Amino acid sequence: MGVSEAPAVRVRIAPSPTGFAHLGTASTALYNVLFARQRNGTFALRVDDTDVERNRPEYELLIYEALRWLGLEWDEGPDKGGPYAPYRQSERVDLYKQNAVKLLAEGKAYKCYCTPEELDAERRQAQAERRPYKYSRRCLIDPPKDRTEFAVRFKVPGGKVNFTDMIRGEMTFDADLIGDFIVMKSDGYPTYQFASPVDDALMKITHVIRGEEHLSNTPYQLMIIDALGYERPAAYAHMPLILAKDGAKLSKRKHPEANLALYREKGYLPEAMINYLALLGWNPGTQQEIFTFDELVRVFSFDRVQHAGARFDWEKLNWINGEWIRSLDDAELARRLQPFLPKLDAATIAAAVPALKTRMTKFSDATALLEYLWTDPTPPTLDSESIERISAAAEALKDVAWEPSAIHERLMQVVEASGQGPNKTFMPLRLAVTGKKISPPIDYTLALLPEEVAMERIRRVLGT
Questions:
Q1: Closest CA to 315 of 250, 257, 247, 239
Q2: Where does a domain end: 269, 300, 328?
């Protein structure tokens, strides 16, 4: 459906620093950035750090680091400032209190003195009567006189809550089904349902783009905005959930792939991650699957975002990453490989790049492929036929120029003389030199080692 245009588009993400940076945070940030850049708008990073027990400063830094690795730079945020600072919710508590006081003064909220035990009893009673639970409003009707500790509870006005979702169209929720909810806890901190809409209003956020799990939160938050007399965002967009292979929502606790740092550690390119995340829930309507960030800015549209959850697919990610690896020129690929091959010098890495390019789906693959260069393998036990082929290869390699093309030519002569396929010669030779069945093409496998080292490993297997 069409997108509401605003004079100055402002979008945001509001992650919580309660653990590692989540793949879903990156996905949400990407869609926000694409929308903002299309419209010369502003992208703000707001940190939801009101969970005092679980928040950690180091987790906030992980969010910054992960988003910057992907190239998803924000225009305003805790580390940058901006016209609506501060951007940490823990530093905005006074603003929430002021807004809560306003609701109380206008009779749109009330003090709730109920204990957790009393609320649990209400819920159990509703369950026993097989009815949806709604708070009884006991503290609105007849508040206890002997208590001092209280939370602030919003008085739900009832009726219908309508809003525009850029993916799902016009949405309507029945507020009569929503019970009065807490906006300020007894510890003086706001709930998510209160802090988020107050911040969106005060920071002039025009479009709220977030995960589908927040769709049911939207009527709560719009009632808060309306009650406070603030201007609503022009539209919302609730992106499909990212699902694990088992179909469950991607979870920090259950699914390692939820950890954004994992992809950097394994050697996925940030360009490939952006490409993949864009396609995780959106399609361009064409056969094109490889996109640069600038291309995504040009073609992205909420019209083609799917409603259903998007299942994470390692195979698709590896294919996209492999395509991006092969798109790099050799010098750039060698530069990016260096952190993954700390035991090799730059010249060796550069020499290996042409062979690695077609065999890697991620940079960490290079470590396994080239491990034989710094690790002396255990000599394999081979049958007599394999020993015979290695012996013929060793003879052919005498006095050859020690570079891939010359080595390849000599070994192909051995293959032709044998009357068998290349693998019959190459596999035992590969095992002798690397101790593995998988390595770069055999000519590169040999050429990357110093000649005397390669020949010594071959002689060791031959027992000569």
A1: 257
A2: 328
Structural domain count of the chain: 3
Which CATH number does the domain housing residue 441 bear?
Answer: 1.10.10.350
Give residue for tokens 């965002």: 233
124: which residues sit within 8 A by CB, 6+ positions away?
Answer: none
With 0-12 CB in 10 A as exposed, 13-18 as middle and 19+ as buried, what is 179? middle
Positions annotated as catalytic residues are: 252
pLDDT digits (tens, 9 = 90+) for 294-341: 999 999 999 999 999 999 999 999 999 999 999 999 999 999 999 999
The residues that bridge with 81 in the sheet, in sequence order, are 77
Count CB atoms within 10 A of the CB of residue 227: 20
In a domain, 152, yes or no: no
Q: Are 157 and 106 in contact (CB under 8 A)?
A: no
Statement to judge: residues 268 and 305 lie in one domain: yes
Report whether 194 contacts 256 (CB < 8 A): no
132 within some domain: no
Cβ–Cβ under 8 Å, residues 20 and 58 = no
* Claim to verify: residue 351 and residue 403 sit in the same structural domain: no
Return the half-sphere exposure (C-beta side, CA atoms, 13 A cut-off) of residue 26.
34
Domain that holds residue 400: 376-462
- Kindly report the pTM of this predicted structure: 0.91
List of residues 6+ apart from 155 with CB closer than 8 A:
107, 108, 109, 110, 140, 180
- Residue 425 shares a structural domain with residue 348: no
Tokens encoding 265: 């550690």
Cα 267 from Cα 336, distance rounded (Å): 9
